[in-house]
Design brief:
The protein is an alpha/beta fold. It has 15 helices and five strands.
């Protein structure tokens, strides 16, 4: 059975306890809070032939087939490659599945994630199935960025915001997943993951803290003119671009906040606190705003998977960063 997370229990009681189910749900919320697991748990519950209370029994023929990924009435649709689009021909396969009769005589369930990965043609192809669902079919759409979905897709689904865990719940869950980590390590990981515990666990597996240490050391050397922008840009090959842009956007925001409030408690994680304060003191505010504006534009291109020259992009970022202290 899919993982169950404590912060989802109230929503699960409400979803699983419904006497009748909608033909389409849109489960949405930030990445890394367990939406996929919630969708898989609901799929299992909807297909189970003898549910045990609010959960699937895990023992009937339907549950065993689902666990083996061979259930004929379950359809999972996701990009064929990570971070790629869901194509229209993939959605056409889904549409064909929806119009067939359920082979086990119960429901058919579709799980689609992430829904925003559908291009415009794929989205339009799905609309017909959302308008006129065939038989007892339930579509479960999962989205990290519902604002990128067509309004017509959203309006045909029951939209369900998924709960974010509290900091205490996140730290408790993360602590049980990483028993050797110190409380300080766990807090740092959670901040780096924007408060999403599942993302924090994934980032830890990718070595995020050593990557962060390399980047922070590089930034300090750049500001002391001990290393050049192009040399640094080439040396950060292992660090994912979205992470780099998240960190630099965060640091510029912290600088602006400090320039406005002079509040030393709001300078972010320990590793960059002094650097952020130094730059906020030395850089004219209009310059920080200009760099932030540029960063946000480039970050959007990175998130939209634009075809960018990584080294040139990072060089441009670092040249601007190095010029922050000083006259504007």
């Amino acid at each position: 059975m899919a993982d169950a997370y404590p912060w989802q229990e109230a929503l699960w009681q409400q979803l699983a306890g419904r006497p009748r189910h909608a033909h389409a749900y849109l489960l949405h919320g930030p990445s890394g809070i367990g939406k996929r697991a919630l969708g898989e748990r609901l799929m299992a519950r909807l297909l189970c032939q003898s549910p045990a209370g609010l959960d699937a029994c895990g023992r009937c023929k339907a549950c065993l087939l689902l666990a083996a990924n061979t259930h004929p009435d379950a359809f999972v649709l996701e990009p064929e490659e990570v971070d790629k689009a869901i194509r229209v021909d993939q959605v056409r396969e889904l549409v064909e599945f929806v119009v067939q009769t359920a082979q086990l005589g119960g429901r058919k369930v579709v799980l689609l994630e992430p829904a925003e990965a559908m291009n415009i043609n794929a989205s339009n192809a799905l609309l017909k199935s959302l308008e006129e669902p065939s038989g007892d079919t339930v579509l479960l759409l999962i989205s990290h960025q519902p604002s990128r979905l067509l309004p017509t897709i959203k309006s045909r689904c029951v939209q369900q915001a998924c709960p974010l865990p509290s900091e205490a719940q996140s730290l408790a869950w993360l602590g049980s997943a990483l028993p050797d980590a110190t409380p300080e390590d766990l807090r740092e990981l959670l901040v780096l993951a924007g408060g999403s515990p599942l993302s924090a666990l994934r980032l830890e597996g990718q070595g995020v803290r050593s990557q962060r240490a390399d980047v922070v050391e590089g930034v300090k050397k750049l500001l002391k003119q001990q290393v050049g922008a192009s040399q640094l840009a080439e040396g950060w090959n292992a660090v994912p671009l979205p992470l780099l842009f998240d960190w630099f956007c965060d640091w510029t925001q912290l600088m602006l906040r400090y320039q406005l409030t002079r509040d030393e408690t709001g300078l972010g994680l320990n590793d960059m606190r002094k650097v952020v304060q130094y730059l906020a003191d030395k850089a004219p505010q209009h310059k920080v705003l200009a760099v932030q504006d540029w960063l946000l534009q480039q970050r959007q291109k990175v998130l939209n998977k634009a075809n960018l020259n990584r080294v040139l992009l990072l060089e441009a970022l670092l040249v601007q960063w190095a010029s922050l202290p000083g006259p504007g």
